[in-house]
């Protein structure tokens, strides 16, 4: 349907609606026919394809081939067990992926978009999904258009349609009919679903919803949550590939070595190759890491930090700077007028009452009005006067970019313009002598220095034919100042302290006056409060100049959203990982540029929420700090999981390699190695993901993003732990007679060694056994399951038969346990020593930096 070719009246008639909107009943009955206003996402893969995906990666294919070969040679038990391992691994992989997807899907629902519609004349808020054809939608700057609309009323409406047309310049919209056939980009009387309102306001009637909208036709999910992998998981995949290549090279070397030295035993080599591949590639690790990350996303949502993708979880843990708005984020946004400086109170009050966006009828009680807290403060101040509203004829809405608001009213024979806004802007436009201006500035500064947000008031009488434009605002009569208090949130004060303890610097970027900003900064405890950069200063600086000073400044005052972008970029130039808050439509570029763009769930515009990586459901600064803590906890757990996985993999591999080099029979059969792998995959691999935050999580500096996945220290740890698991176990087993017994001892030693080492890994450097030992229930459940499974293979006849094990005596078990405990204590002592060394290093570095 070419709605743009119809007049507004014809459109309303065709769609059976009217300018006052639909009634509730009408909307409900239409919704039954219409269905939800939602774009069906194309399912990328169906369940079977998803399951199949986990059986087709290289390692699985190798195992499947191995199993088939075993079947062909008549070794059914071995073949069967290899198949079992393949199936368990594949299903576990699928389950992990589904879990990760589920937690992200849950978030999508939480981020549902809202729309304002008219219901029998009254504006109401609705989830955008509930819109039906015929609904009358109100648009304002910062909104994302919720459906395809034929516009029926516009005021300076410009819309950015890049998502549809690729054109990033905003388009000015009209309501007039367009006669000739036009593509979406030229349909100027339409507003399309998913496009962004840059300026102005408008009213439009919904003509298409869901899949029938322009954006629906190209099937582009609006609030798509990115499930992309994170840098760490990517590195892990790469590492796996390298390990795989390394093992192939090793197998080839062993093939040559053993056949030259001892003569080739194909059967042995085949078994050994499978054992090596299975044992040494931590194939499940990327999936485990992904799952830990997705659980983190869910945890953060519970804490009111809604994360849009897993990479953000990782980045949060390394954040070094938080740039925050002041109003509403650090302060309560409960504004009250503290002082008014004027000799013409009557006219000031009249401006307060009329030059505003909230009150439209005299009968409205101020307690019932919601909206911009600055204007509410003014309305409350004049509420008792019972002044009548002057009929309004024009308006320039407030914008942080020019920092004032003006309205035009009829006034007897002529007209009057009321202006309120930042005093220095108004004083520039006022008719004053130098001395008068200086006096007002002094008064304003006095208010601001007490932490008050200062507004100036002015008016101008104009002819009855005059129109309200920015250019008309000259020669104003300046009449007074009001100081508004907006106290800091107690939680923000605590959060700023916490962030600073965690080595994260907090910077405040505000549109307010620098004296106000400074006073509030002192109250909330920012560090560098003596040096302040104003928007105008930043304008004078080159990007390089700004980058040089930006680190030492914590207060940026009288800024516009454009300055935020420059500040982020400057900080990033200095290798900072930057979190930046924003709520307005113009904040989107800065939010996108920041490493973590943070939008406000309550007062933020839809556009800012779309641009952000994280949305604060409670608009609270404290939530950012909580999210950082969670991000650090998760990253620690990822690191712990890696530290746990790799040595145990290496230990198993070493056993095979040493045996081959010494021409000994394989100490463990491939089946036994598969078993060890499978039980630990099922039980031990997740447990560390549930570890609570360590004590020092928020007292140590942010993680250095430049270090790779494996530090020199990690290599050291992997090597010695794997040797410590393997060597005692090997020699112990050799002291006994009988293959089955030797193998059982070895198997049990490795499994127990892994279990114990997992407990070591709970804390990276602190003692593993501490007061919070029992907090991670999951760890004990895992150990419990592992225990039962091991009992099964060591003592149950069926288990013994399948895996080739035999029962152990009590003494044998105690010796194995003793070995494991030895490992535990050695690792604990090593951690302690390493911690001391790292501390000393840190100290010398900080000394060096201070000098
Ligand atoms: P922050 O960035 O910390 O949230 P802010 O967004 O409140 O600060 P702005 O909204 O840009 O900062 O306000 C800047 C200045 O504009 C204020 O100091 C005040 O003088 C003036 N101002 C704020 N709100 C209004 C309004 N509704 N009408 C007129 N002037 C306003």
UniProtKB/TrEMBL annotation:
UniProt protein name: HAD-IC family P-type ATPase
Membrane-crossing residue ranges in chain numbering: 51-70, 76-95, 243-262, 268-293, 642-662, 668-689, 710-733, 739-757, 778-798, 810-829
Domain Cation-transporting P-type ATPase N-terminal: start-end pairs: 2-75
Species: Enterococcus pseudoavium
Keywords: ATP-binding, Membrane, Nucleotide-binding, Translocase, Transmembrane, Transmembrane helix
Compartments in which it is found: Membrane
PANTHER family from the UniProt entry: P-TYPE ATPASE, SODIUM/POTASSIUM-TRANSPORTING ATPASE SUBUNIT ALPHA
Sequence similarity: Belongs to the cation transport ATPase (P-type) (TC 3.A.3) family. Type IIA subfamily.
Top-level taxon of origin: Bacteria
Keyword Nuclease: no
Membrane topology term: Multi-pass membrane protein
Primary location group: membrane
InterPro entries recorded: ATPase_P-typ_cation-transptr_C, ATPase_P-typ_cation-transptr_N, ATPase_P-typ_cyto_dom_N, ATPase_P-typ_P_site, ATPase_P-typ_TM_dom_sf, ATPase_P-typ_transduc_dom_A_sf, ATPase_P-type_domA, Cation_transp_ATPase_P-type
Gene3D superfamilies: Calcium-transporting ATPase, cytoplasmic domain N, Calcium-transporting ATPase, cytoplasmic transduction domain A, Calcium-transporting ATPase, transmembrane domain, HAD superfamily/HAD-like
